[in-house]
Design a protein that fits this description.
The longest helix is centred in the first third of the chain and has 14 residues, at 11-24. This protein has 5 helices and 5 strands. The chain is globular, with a radius of gyration of 13 Å. The protein is α/β, with parallel strands linked by helices and 121 residues long. Helices cover 42% and strands 22% of the residues. Strand 3 (52-56), helix 3 (65-75) and strand 4 (80-85) form a beta-alpha-beta unit.
Length: 121
Amino acid sequence: MKNIIIVDDDPINNYLCELTIKTVYPNAQTQSFTNPVFAFSTLTNPPVDSRTTILLDLNMPEMNGWQFLEKFEQKNISCTFYILTSSVNPVDKEKAQKYSIVAGFLSKPISSQNVVKILSS
């Protein structure tokens, strides 16, 4: 079973993500964080494993999504990221593709179809 972690400073988005995930896969294990610094600390000590998928927002205080990805890559931890953002800037999508740990770029709010795609990959 995959674990899905949501890192977004917006608690409403986190709630909607968890609700959508649980609607599609009622037994899915989910966890959300509104503080990216706390999330990074929690997810890297001890490190998450390869069954973990992280839905990551880009625009957050204290540590943005790009900084989060940079620090995560430095730890060399095997998991999968999906950028989940309200950004429509094509530069963000191009930048996300440069990270080997990023499997996709999704728009908020997450759809049931995207949840199926994430959990079946």
